[in-house]
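User
New here, help please:
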Amino acid sequence: MRTVLTPAKAANLAALMAGLLALIPAFRCWRLLRPTALRIIAVWLVLAVVSYVAAAAVYLADMSVAWVEAARIAAAVLTGALGVVVLGARGPREAAWHVILASYVLVVFFPVFEQAVTSRWQAGSRPALDWLRVALLLLIAALTMANYAVSRLRYAVAAGSIGAAVQAMLASPWPIPSRDAFFAVSVLVVAGSLLSCSSLQLASAAGGPLDCRWRLFRDLWGIAWAFRIQERFNQEANRKGWRAWITWAEVVEPDDPVVRASAVELFESLVRRFATAEWFVGLCPHPDHPNADDDKTGAGRSDAGTC
């Protein structure tokens, strides 16, 4: 018996391949972010990508509609978790944040378990989330896009957030035509955003050591954390009488090498709960820094700052 490759199956096959390819930048991001509190997002990123592969594989295996939709809802929920995880990406409470994220997944995904046990699907022949949970996933996608709106990751995050929003709408009880194709396209968009992130050079040698560290932190942690660090740094630098300050787009560094090194150490002390000083030294080497000769990140200079 010949298997007919319909457009929907072709799209899901492409989504399956894209999901497998997206595992490469996901693991590269984990390797880069391992010395930082953002390693928590790398773990959930891998889980989300695996869910895309599983959802596409379940569809291609011609399993029941209930299984296909449950896998897709799981993918939507895990994608939403990526926008939440960065809000708690600082030490030393990472384990507690994992518990919070796991609780979020269980609470949002609970209706699917309930519908499976009772065999009463909310959308006729398939499981679905209620509109309150769909609205929550859409809100998370919008807030994630806003958090990175003015960083160098903005276009990739925007594409990923749009893909997450499409997945959230597909998890709703609303009858959407061409559901299979829409899900496959959303996976392709999210996977494409991951691949584009992996080629983006975050660490730049063009500016000074403080500028490099600020841009790394700003682009990876987003507005939610960056503005707090910016305000605290500027207050402390002003109190010490340094001619140094940070704005979102510009960093003014002291001319005196000794003061410049002190400003770098101040910034690293402010973000020590987010990333180690050695990690910053590995990506933004600074000859005046006391740890300049120690590279403990394991990241080579050629791919520094990329996922």
